[in-house]
Amino acid sequence: MAKILVTGGAGFIGSNLVDSLIAKGHEITIIDNLTTGSKKNVNSKAKFVVKDIRDDLNSLFSEGSFDYVFHLAAQANVRKSLENPKEDASINILGSLNIIDNCVKHKVKKIIFSSTGGAIYSKYAKLPCHEESEIKPESPYGLAKFSVENYLRIIKNTYGLDYCILRYSNVYGPRQDAKGEAGVVSIFIDRLLKGEDLLVFGDGEQTRDFIYVKDVVNANVLAMEKNLSDVFNVGTGKEISVNELAKMLLKITGKKAKIVHGIAITGELLRNALNADKLRKKGWSNEYTLENGLKETCEWFVNK
Hints:
The protein is an alpha/beta fold and 304 residues long. Helix content is 39%, strand content 18%. It has 2 domains: 3-171 and 211-235, NAD(P)-binding Rossmann-like Domain (Rossmann fold, 3-Layer(aba) Sandwich), CATH 3.40.50; 172-207 and 239-275 and 284-303, UDP-galactose 4-epimerase, domain 1 (Alpha-Beta Complex), CATH 3.90.25. Helix 6 crosses helix 10 (290-303).
């Protein structure tokens, strides 16, 4: 049994990760400021502390004696990062540095950092992107995530804090908030269940690599259990357009709705897919097809 801190553990990915870690018998502490997370997501067997990652966390770390920290708390909306880059940097850079600083001070064995593969690579990089593809973020969000990656590299060299970085493609699944964390899958399902049309920004031909949350959770657990210390993409390597996604959800839900198009979003990548062969060689695989993952997600939204 390990003592583990999960930042953002009341959020979409974080709460799913907490459930998996608790099922494996670990002792879990969650911190979350509930900006986008929800108390409803919190596993009753976890210790839950309402805190911001920018708060004074010294006593929390001191009392927790954590072996591992999974750092998922973030301002995760690309659009918001473009509208308010200062706030994005405050949370995603300064907040992360606060977590990292406490990890060093309190001798945490490893920090496992949730980064982005969807907003970090150059829009000119050959797809699917691998870990050595050119880095050229188009948004403050992507820039902040890459900054933290570099801080981790420097801090490991200076202070010895071990880390693993996981760069996710577009994560979807149960508990994704159609408002708070703004994933297109959850937004589309929410609109379909309300009898509303699907709003697609731009022409809808922009592509994404959609990865089911349970596969992302498995990547995190593997990083801890196999003591991985590197940078890994977490994705399927397959592109699907937003238009195709909309049609799949219309078919799965059986709803009749129009697909309407709005203005394209500044800073949004036109295409994205991640090569995760490096992680696959460590024993990971994405077990869910997009269709199966979407069906489970739709079921959750219907029954929640």
